[in-house]
Design a protein that fits this description.
Distance between the termini: 25 Å
Radius of gyration: 19 Å
Order of helices and strands: EEHEEHHEEHEHEEEEHEHEEEH
CATH class of the largest domain: Alpha Beta
Largest sheet: 9 strands, mixed
Number of domains: 2
Strand content: 25-35%
Mean pLDDT: 97
Structural class: alpha+beta
CATH superfamily of the largest domain: D-amino Acid Aminotransferase, subunit A, domain 2
Bound molecules: pyridoxal-5'-phosphate
CATH architecture of the largest domain: Alpha-Beta Barrel
Helix content: 25-40%
Low-confidence stretches: none
């Protein structure tokens, strides 16, 4: 396996992560996951802009310019000879003796590598099942930080109940999924939580909103309640790995007729077309 370390591509065996790296000890860092189709990173500019924003919000200096990083991501995909996969990138504040304040001596470290991934087209056709659970995460979910325990615990709970996703709520307001954004469809209108500090501003969420608008579907970025989720005509989730995926059951209750809905299917088709358009050579 090849690994990008700052702007050098190395063999995994030659990469050393320091014991006192702040990513390892404090979760003091950020990440991105970018899908690759046809050997081309999909919506790479949007991912890079979000990486820059996450870094800025945490006062973290990226060790490589975005221009150089994009070149290196492309080189990594080519050298690994991959067509469909994803790229994981993370940046930590670097290594320093373990004290909470920002160290003056540490240098941020970027690492990146290719992960296996396949768009789960079977789930797209069937839909997934979800549970709801309390959103116990911090109040800066807009930063794509390495601190993922709130999401990990929620996803584990879902899996233990035979479900694929956990839909999070604060009091009774639905925020997002443990690793996805959540939409409901009611009377032909899409609803999703506004892009504020309580959710990750998903790149797929944004693409779905733009596609819906192109299809003349009304979109409201308005908070909705858990009860609205149960009573929705359709529910779907969006994310880099899962793309646009219908949710047919929430907390063992069927959504609509318990089958993927027409608005969701129309958006999925538009999303597949977008992938082809954006990643054609
Ligand atoms: N929300 C959370 C909490 C996530 O972790 C993710 C992706 O990892 C998403 C939403 C989806 O974001 P994107 O579409 O940019 O992958």
């Amino acid at each position: 396996m090849l690994v990008l370390v700052n702007d050098q591509i190395k063999s995994r065996e030659d990469v050393r992560i320091d014991l006192e790296d702040r990513g390892y000890q404090f979760g003091d860092g950020i990440y991105e996951v970018i899908s690759v189709y046809n050997g081309q990173p999909f919506l790479m500019d949007q991912h890079m802009q979000r990486l820059e924003r996450s870094a800025r919000e945490l006062m973290l200096d990226l060790p490589v310019s975005i221009g150089r990083l994009k070149e290196k991501v492309q080189a990594l995909i080519e050298q690994e000879g991959r067509s469909t996969c994803s790229v994981y990138l993370q940046v930590t504040r670097g290594a320093a003796p373990r004290r909470h304040p920002f160290p003056t001596s540490a240098t941020p470290v970027l690492t990146g590598y290719i992960m296996d991934s396949n768009p789960p087209r079977d789930l797209h056709a069937e839909g997934i099942r979800a549970i709801t659970t309390d959103d116990i995460r911090w109040l800066r979910c807009d930063i794509k930080s390495l601190n993922l325990l709130g999401s990990v615990l929620a996803k584990q709970k879902a899996v233990e109940q035979g479900c694929q996703e956990a839909i999070l709520h604060r009091s009774d307001t639905v925020t997002e999924g443990s690793s996805t954004n959540v939409f409901i469809v009611k009377n032909g209108t899409l609803y999703t939580h506004p892009a504020n500090h309580l959710i990750l501003h998903g790149i797929t969420r944004h693409a779905a909103i733009q596609l819906a608008e192109k299809l003349n579907t009304n979109v409201k970025e308005t908070p909705f309640k858990r009860e609205d989720l149960y009573e929705a005509d359709e529910v779907f989730v969006t994310g880099t790995s899962i793309e646009i995926c219908p949710v047919t059951h929430v907390d063992n209750r069927a959504i609509g007729n318990g089958q993927p809905g027409d608005v969701t299917k129309q958006l999925q088709r538009a999303f597949y077309d977008l992938i082809v358009e954006e990643t054609a050579m």
